[in-house]
Design a protein that fits this description.
Layout: H1 119-153, E1 156-158, E2 174-181, H2 189-195, E3 205-213, E4 220-223, E5 229-232, E6 236-239, H3 242-260, E7 266-270, H4 272-281, E8 285-289, E9 293-295, E10 300-302, E11 305-309, H5 311-319, H6 328-346, H7 349-352, H8 355-367, E12 369-372, H9 377-391, E13 396-399, E14 402-409, E15 412-417, H10 419-431
Parallel strand pairs: 1-12, 2-7, 4-13
Antiparallel strand pairs: 2-3, 3-4, 5-6, 7-12, 8-11, 9-10, 14-15
Length: 439
């Protein structure tokens, strides 16, 4: 910018004080300033002359607007050609504020558009979903625990621990004795007539099975004919089911242990009434018969083919032996087949995975059974899983090797084991060796 001493640009422009409006006195043509000391500092009131400073030499006293953009010579009242040889320093004036761009009402963020979804909202939605899922899982686990606890509490307990001191040592795997009794204790007279169970008092072991769970591999279910002629500890030789009548579950377990050389780790029994109730709870069991079955003693009359067995039909099917040419040996095979089919019906996903269904079926089954006092919940669960495997065909089912199915004794016709083959079978189970006995 050129320097002109005659123009003092550092002095402020005087302005009219509030209230006067900067009006002139029409009498003398001069500006009537109320207090000249308030304008132009450095000019005493007595020494100030209007000719010393005239901000508007052309007589125009209108307020100038501040220039916008870059300063030029014309902004200061000079012509460009008067200072052609001078170099003006361009300075920036304050620019006017730029208005923000207008948003499209139909675009994102507009009043008529959809605001963009922040990522944080997506994270919150995922967290809510995971929280709800966790609550559902906890509720399901809690309901399953409730169902299993209800089933476990519905099972009765019996003392099945042998009193003898010469029990076999534990071997490979675990062994559980499954007993079906002919107890009619919970049946009314009408039910006994309908089921054709007779009216005999007391209880006898009508079905005996030894379930072996190896440390590795498939389970083995061994049927023991109830008329097996064995030594009953302290009572001489007799049919094996007589041990239950003489000394109950403890003596029966002791007899099985002494006859097989296997230590029994758990005990489970079920009576006639409980068996019928369990079958009714699952809605019957489907059995496929190769030939018609007719038994006059139990009034059983079944056609050949697949059919559902319930109530008296199911019970008498597994008990029938007089019309079977194989007698007790044919009966134990039917019992294993029916037990596998019953377990398959009870182990369906609709029963096992639904807590309320599991409770209904489990409590009905549990109330019909009795467990040994030393049999734990873990062992009971293992038995159930093993029976499920056998029902699926993954295990082995067989009968103790027989030497004579009609052996004459002082207690009547009995079943005599093949001592050599039976010993080989039980030794393989005790040591965990593969079985060489054909089912």
């Amino acid at each position: 910018m050129p320097n002109h001493p005659e123009d003092d640009w550092t002095r402020p422009i005087p302005r009219a004080p509030r209230g006067s409006g900067g009006r002139r006195d029409p009498g003398d043509g001069r500006e009537d300033w109320q207090d000249t000391a308030d304008y132009g500092r450095g000019y005493p009131e007595s020494g100030y002359q209007e000719s010393d400073y005239d901000p508007y030499p052309d007589g125009d006293d209108r307020t100038r607007e501040l220039p916008v953009g870059r300063a030029t010579a014309a902004d200061y009242g000079y012509a460009e050609e008067d200072y052609a040889d001078e170099r003006w320093v361009e300075r920036e004036y304050a620019e006017e504020p730029v208005a923000p761009p207008r948003r499209d009402p139909r675009g994102p963020g507009g009043p008529g558009g959809r605001p963009p979804r922040p990522r944080r909202r997506r994270r919150y939605a995922l967290r809510r979903f995971m929280a709800v899922l966790l609550l559902l899982v906890l509720a399901y686990v809690g309901s399953m625990i409730w169902a299993v606890t209800s089933v476990w509490n519905s099972i009765d307990r019996v003392d099945a621990t042998p009193t003898g001191s010469a029990r076999p040592e534990g071997g490979s795997g675990s062994n559980f004795l499954l007993v079906g009794t002919d107890s009619r204790e919970n049946l009314s007279r009408e039910e006994r007539n309908d089921l054709v169970t007779g009216h005999a008092e007391g209880s006898r072991a009508d079905t005996l099975m030894l379930l072996h769970l190896p440390d590795s591999g498939d389970p083995v279910l061994v049927s023991i004919p109830r008329d097996s002629y064995v030594e009953i500890p302290g009572n001489g030789s007799n049919k094996i089911n007589a041990a239950y009548s003489i000394g109950g579950p403890p003596l029966l377990v002791d007899t099985v242990e002494q006859s097989t050389g296997l230590r029994v780790d758990g005990y489970l029994e079920i009576g006639f009434g409980g068996f019928v109730e369990v079958v009714a709870t699952v809605g019957g069991v489907e059995m496929c018969l190769d030939e018609p079955v007719v038994d006059e003693k139990t009034r059983l009359d079944l056609p050949a083919g697949c059919q559902h067995l319930e109530g008296a039909q199911a019970l008498n099917y597994v008990r029938m032996r007089y019309s079977d040419p194989r007698g007790d040996l044919g009966r134990v095979e039917r019992q294993r087949e029916f037990l596998a089919a019953l377990t398959k019906e009870m182990a369906t996903p609709g029963t096992v995975l639904l807590p309320w269904r599991l409770k209904d079926v489990g409590t009905a089954t549990g109330s019909a059974m009795a467990l040994g006092e030393d049999t734990s919940m873990w062992e009971t669960g293992r038995m159930a899983l093993a029976m499920r495997s056998i029902a699926k065909g993954e295990g082995q089912s067989l009968t103790v090797p027989i030497g004579d199915a009609n052996y004459s004794t002082h207690v009547g016709s009995s079943v005599l084991w093949d001592e050599a083959k039976a010993a080989e079978l039980f030794e393989a189970l005790r040591t965990g060796e593969p079985l060489s006995i054909e089912p």
